[in-house]
Each structure stands twice: as structure tokens, then as C-alpha cells.
Amino acid sequence: MRLVIQRVKEAAVHINGQKRSGIGEGMLLLVGIEDTDNEEDIGFLCRKTVNLRIFDDENGVMNRSILETGGDILVVSQFTLHASTKKGNRPSYIRAAKPDISIPLYEQFCAVLSEMLQKQVFTGEFGADMQVELTNNGPVTIWIDSKNKE
């Protein structure tokens, strides 16, 4: 499972010109799921996400987690995080899980994250053509892969 975390001032998802969901300060998470992902990957990434100290403390140092700031999280599925560009110029998405595997894992990821955050996690719509807008704060963008734990 791959995760791109962006610290944001605000973020929103639009589908067919309509706002699906949006948040103020917090995190925008782009989540890519592959066939070999499981509950262990979900647990690792959710724990890492809610405890990641990427928010400023009173001294302007990134030393606070989202649990401490009370910020919101917007989760967007993104199979292209598993793109392979090894051959040619057209990316291959063979490693990205098919919907029968990825939808339940995506839903479980959101549920576990919501439980750890102890509040609602906002989402896009799995498989939809989404327009995602954000104001990256910093900018701070972090990539984590649950298979290599970094």
C-alpha cells in the first residue's frame, strides 16, 4: 500500500462539477492499493499517519501530529501510485489491485483511520473521475510504502 500525505491549509474533491467533500487544515491522503496489501499494511499506515509529526508547534517546528492539532483528513483513492514506468512511455498499472480487492481495503483503511483519529474521515469516491484541489501547507509532501516501511 502506498500513501502520499500532503499537509494542507484546505483540500476538496469535486465530481462532475459538484463538491463531494472538503476539509480545512489537515492532511490530504492519496492511497494506492495493490493485490498483496492486507490489514497489517492498513494498521501500519494508519498508525504512521495519525502520529506523523508534520504540524508546527508554538516554536514553528514540525513537532505535532494531527491527533494534537485536531485537523481533518481527506482520503482519495489513487491507483496510479502503483504505476510502473520501467518499459516504454505508457505506465503499467498491473500492480494496482482490482476493485474487488481494493474497495474493501480502501473502506477498511478509512474506517481504521477514522477510529484512530476519533472523528470522521472525509473521502472522495472510489473509481470516480475526481478533481482534487488543495492548498499545500509548507509545502509538506511525504510518501510512505507499507512494504518497505518508509
SSE layout and pairing:
Blueprint lengths: L1 E14 L2 E6 L2 E7 L6 H13 L3 E2 L5 E3 L1 H4 L2 E6 L21 H19 L4 E2 L6 E16 L5
Parallel strand pairs: 3-6, 6-7
Antiparallel strand pairs: 1-2, 1-3, 1-8, 4-5
What does this structure look like?
- This protein starts with a strand and ends in a 5-residue tail after the last strand.
- A hairpin with a 2-residue loop joins strand 1 (2-15) and strand 2.
- Helix 1 runs parallel beside helix 3 (99-117).
- The model has no long low-confidence stretch (mean pLDDT 95).
- With 150 residues, it is α/β, with parallel strands linked by helices.
- Helix content is 24%, strand content 37%.
- The protein contains three helices and eight strands, in the order βββαββαβαββ.
- Strands 1, 2, 3, 6, 7 and 8 form a six-stranded mixed sheet that branches.
